Amino acid sequence: MGKKVKSILNFVAWITGVIVSLAVGFAMAGGTLSIPWLSSIGAGIVTMIAGWVVIISTLVSAALALLKQ
Hints:
Elements: H1 3-30, H2 36-39, H3 45-68
Helix pairs in contact: 1-3
């Protein structure tokens, strides 16, 4: 496999991971997606906080990855 094809596939896999992480994070923060045993604690506030942690960590890691390039 050529070096260019490999780098394109790596980029596609990376951007897919970022999109999925953001989708899950926003769903958790918005209350659409919950973790059954976690949502019972504090009326879902733990799930919402976990969602925001996912969102922030994904954005920070994406920014750092883009700056590294």
